[in-house]
Every structure is written in C-alpha cells, then in structure tokens.
Design brief:
334 residues, Rossmann fold, 29% strand, binds S-adenosylmethionine, alpha/beta, 15 strands, VC0802-like
C-alpha cells in the first residue's frame, strides 16, 4: 500500500477542536489541518502509521478513525465504476477488502457504498463490511465524496468513520451498555473467563449485564438500584453503597474493575487508586473519565496522570458512544 498524502480523521463534532489541539501538540504547531466536515478533518504530511500509533496509546484521545485520502470527487461529477476501480487498485493488492461509507454528521452512505463496491467487484475484488486488513472508505462531506484506503491496523476502528452501531434490543438495561461493549470490541479486550469484576457506579446495571455476558461474577457498587431483571442472578452482588465505603469495608480482590461513576475526572481517577489495592497485579481497568467543566481535554489528561500512579494506561479515547467523556483502559502496575 502506498504511503504519504493526506490523512482524513474523524472526531465528534463537539470535540473537533480538541482533536486539532492534540494533533498540533503531537506533530507541531505548523502541521496543516483543515476541517472538511462537522466530524471530519484532513491532516497533511504525517504518516498514517505515526498518527495511528499516537492515537492507539491515548496521546491523542479525540480522534476516533483514520484513513489515507486517495481521491475526492464532487458529488455531481462522480467517477464511473471503471475509473474508480483503476484509482483504487493502485492502492492495494488484496483480493478481499472492507468497504465502509458514511455521510459526515449523518448516517451511512448506501448509494456510495454501491458505487465503490461495484467498482471493486467489477475487477474481481471481493467486498465485505468489516474484518479485512484493507479498508476502503467513502466519506461524504459537504458536496464531495472523499475516498480513503487504509490498513485496518491503522484505522483505530473497524466501523465507518469509527461510528460503531449496536442493536438496541429490549434486553438492554441502559444506554451506557454501548460504551462498555464498544470499548471491549475496539480495544480487543479479553476478560478472564470466570473472573471477579468490580463495577463502580453500577446502577441501573448495564455494565454489570455486559460483564456477566463476558463470564464475570460481578460486585455492583452503587447506592442506586439495579434493574429488576438482574435480581435473580446469583453471580451479581449489589453493594448498595458508595465506592469509598465499599473499599473501606471489603477485602475482596478482583481481576477486572470498571468505573462509570458520575464525577469529575480527577476524583474518579483517585477512586481508581483505591481500587488498585483490590485489583490483582496486571488486572484490567476500564474507566470513563467524564467531561465536566469547560476543558475536557485537560481534565482527561489530569485524570490519566493520576491513574499513572498505580496503572499502565494502555488506551484512552473518546469512543462513538462516549458523550462528554473519554474511556481509558489500563492495567494495574502494582
Ligand atoms: C452513568 S451512571 C452508571 C450507568 C451504568 N454504568 C450502567 O451501565 O447502567 C453513574 C452512576 O454513578 C453512581 N455514583 C456516583 N458517585 C458514586 C460513588 N461515590 N460511589 C458509587 N456510585 C456512584 C451514580 O449513583 C450513578 O448511578
């Protein structure tokens, strides 16, 4: 796959400027960045692999998807399938690729997906929606169709523009469930089968439900109630108290601790230092650091600094289902 040119990056519309601040902090104030849509920007002169690496480890938190820009067309002058195929086939040699399209700030771009998929299939390339090493992206921004080609490994997410869509079944206990599911899928987290998990700020129990689906016995700490549907499960222990009181009164140790408590980033991270004493060395932590205040970037950075005291932070990112917050993934280092 050829390198160079521009990289298109996606960020939540409200967080776009934070993503730009982070990009300039990482790659220099002079790096050329242009906003091309509500949720889409273009950065020049930075190799996509370097960008992906900075995002992967959480030095850049507010970028959620990357693709290398290879072409752009006005919507009223779209290429023929044959022209598009010729352009795309210069970029990769894979015989099966994923094709993902989206409309900036809106939904999927079905008709553009048909154009790109048709072009590739006409040259014998098989097309899937995900799960391939090479991803061809089509993003409609303003009056343009922007085409990207990228390795999945450098894309940050295997969803169009990083917008993971999850089914809203009746079994869902809360919208927060999506955040945990997305974090587990995006970062490929392995929860130890039969492990003990501590869920801080558990009410009404969405994260507890997801942890159970991943084979955990769960201690659900929250003064608030759990959804009645969780009551019959003997592997759920509702501790109707605050996290501080729970730690003071319990010696149980855990393989996993998750924290979705409603409090500012630093307070929440400090609570995780208390949790570290109850976590096995190398145990997994999943924490939402909630926006609050006018400066979610600096707040999140301060929260991560606190976490560093007892954890190795592996990832930190504003996922699609995060609102004014980021999700951090860490392992206990003590
Ligand atoms: C966003 S909700 C959690 C939703 C939950 N993760 C789910 O999926 O259903 C935040 C919760 O944090 C809880 N909370 C806030 N401060 C807390 C504390 N000190 N200890 C325990 N829970 C706390 C609140 O009671 C509230 O239920």
């Amino acid at each position: 796959m050829s390198g160079g040119r521009s990289v298109l990056f996606s960020a939540a519309a409200d967080s776009y400027e934070l993503a730009v601040r982070e990009l300039r902090g990482e790659f220099g104030r002079d790096v050329r960045i242009k906003r091309v849509g509500a949720e889409l920007g273009r950065v020049d002169g930075v190799p996509v692999g370097e960008l992906a690496a900075a995002c992967d480890v959480g030095r850049i938190m507010f970028v959620r998807h990357l693709t290398r820009e290879v072409a752009g067309y006005p919507l009223d002058e779209l290429p023929t399938e044959s022209e598009l195929a010729t352009t795309l086939l210069e970029e990769f040699s894979a015989r099966t690729v994923a094709v993902q399209t989206w409309i900036d700030g809106a939904g999927t771009g079905g008709s553009y997906r048909r154009l790109i998929a048709g072009a590739l299939e006409s040259r014998g390339v098989a097309v899937e929606r995900s799960g391939q090493d090479v991803v061809v992206s089509g993003a409609v921004a303003g009056k343009q169709l922007l085409i990207g080609v990228n390795r999945l490994a450098d894309s940050l997410s295997d969803w169009p523009g990083g917008q993971m869509r999850l089914a809203r079944g009746e079994e869902r206990v809360s919208r927060s469930e999506f955040k945990l599911e997305e974090a587990i899928a995006t970062f490929g987290l392995d929860l130890p089968n039969g492990g003990n998990a501590l869920d801080l700020g558990a009410s009404p129990g969405g994260w507890t439900r997801i942890l159970r689906l991943h084979g955990q016995e769960v201690w659900s700490v929250d003064p608030g109630a759990l959804d009645p549907r969780l009551r019959g499960d003997r592997r759920i222990h509702h501790e109707a108290t605050t996290a501080g009181r729970f730690f003071a009164a319990n010696r149980v140790t855990f393989d996993v601790v998750v924290n979705d408590m409603r409090m500012d980033q630093v307070t929440s991270a400090r609570m995780m230092l208390d949790a570290a004493a109850h976590l096995h060395r190398g145990g997994l932590a999943i924490v939402t650091l909630k926006g609050g205040g006018k400066n979610p970037l600096d707040g999140a950075r301060r929260g991560l600094q606190v976490l560093n005291d007892q954890y190795d932070v592996l990832h930190a990112r504003q996922l699609h289902h995060n609102r004014n917050e980021i999700t951090a993934i860490a392992r206990s280092s003590h």
